[in-house]
Amino acid sequence: MAVTIQSLILTPPRTATTPFPCLKTSHLLSRSLRINPSRSFATPIRSCKPSDETHGSGLANGLNWTKPLLNFAADNFLPLALIGGVAFGLANPTLGCLADKYYLSKFSTFGIFIVSGLTLRSDAIGAAAKAWPVGVFGLCSILLFTPYFSRLILQIHLQPQEFVTGLAIFNCMPTTLSSGVALTQLAGGNSALALAMTVMSNMIGILIIPFSISKFIADGVGVSVPTAQLLRSLVLTLLIPLILGKVLRESFRGLADYVDHNRKLYSRISAVFLSLVPWIQVSRSRSLLLMVKPTVFIVAIGIGALLHLILLAFNTLAIRSLSAVTGGSESIFAKKENAQAALLVASQKTLPVMVAVVEQLGGAFGESGLLVLPCVAAHIIQIILDSFLVNFWLRMDLPSNTAKVA
């Protein structure tokens, strides 16, 4: 009995198995799918792409869609970086305030001018010697003449008044570090002359800016500026790193070649450094910025665009007058290449030097974020307007070039 029970427990139940179980399944399937022979269906046989090939084509279509977007971001890296810094500061000011606590903006300013010194090429400056009268006019316009328009800007009443004051400070700055030269080269102008004016105006401008701000802005706002202290601060934070970068470039030939072959990389590094400053300042002033009406900010942007158009008109009139006085069509001012270089470079103002100056002022003219924000917009607008001007020049040159070929 025990043996019988043990055998019942240990012996598994027998199941009917067939040597080819699939045949049974297929037989049942064929019976279930059996159709009346009188009815026939023509089932087309289609070749299917492998799944990995289909996935690859979908991925390629996705990449084709993102390629124009990436190209646009690469071509407009600086404006996007500046807009992104402002937007990030408005969205989440915590990190920006933390960066301000550890003086990150001062390090970023130092980095901007180290990179500027590394990328400044001086080998072409000698080629601009023949056009030295145009270069002298450009320097005088940048550093002496155009700052007078700051007094005109200060006559505008806008709340907050820091928007107007910031644009007035921006008008006292030297020319852009790279945009003027790049646009001159694109237009076919005298890029060597543009480069010479850029280097010299930024070098000399650091020494002149404190006096320009004290004369044109401090008197109008009613604020005293410690000129000597500001000059010392600008020399330490702008001039010394600029000279240091230039010395490194000239000391190591391999470094100069590497920088020249990777100028886009260094321009993007400089753009990232530059975007840190408005990010920190907007983060610090977020509560005040949110109180500003959008219409007021749009008016400030309009003032910045109008300022650049005024500078273009002033420099155009001055160049034509000097051309008429110094020999007409034979004058060195009448040469299209020289006139284009002087007009573009003398009409632009640099943002990095402006934000460095605002940092050193320590709130003497108001909240730094409110001072810088309209200048970020003005900096972007001047590049956009000048790019349209260069495109207009290139279109004007097309008929003459076609006639020459014919």
From TrEMBL:
Q: Could you tell me the membrane topology recorded for this protein?
A: Multi-pass membrane protein
Gene3D superfamilies membership: 1.20.1530.20
Keyword annotations of the record: Chloroplast, Membrane, Plastid, Transit peptide, Transmembrane, Transmembrane helix, Transport
Q: Which Pfam families match?
A: SBF_like
Against InterPro entries, the record matches this protein to:
Na+/solute_symporter_sf, Put_Na-Bile_cotransptr
Give the UniProt subcellular location, in the record's own words. Answer: Membrane; Plastid, Chloroplast envelope
| Keyword Transmembrane helix among record annotations | yes
Which GO cellular component terms are attached? chloroplast envelope; membrane
Domain of life of the source: Eukaryota
Listed transmembrane segments: 69-91, 132-154, 166-186, 192-213, 225-245, 265-282, 294-314
Alphabetical list of PANTHER family matching this protein: SODIUM_METABOLITE COTRANSPORTER BASS4, CHLOROPLASTIC-RELATED, SOLUTE CARRIER FAMILY 10 MEMBER 7
User: Its function?
Assistant: May function as sodium-coupled metabolite transporter across the chloroplast envelope.
Family designation: Belongs to the bile acid:sodium symporter (BASS) (TC 2.A.28) family.
Query: What protein is this chain from?
Result: Probable sodium/metabolite cotransporter BASS4, chloroplastic
What species is this protein from?
Answer: Theobroma cacao (Cacao)
| Lineage, uppermost ranks | Eukaryota, Viridiplantae, Streptophyta, Embryophyta, Tracheophyta
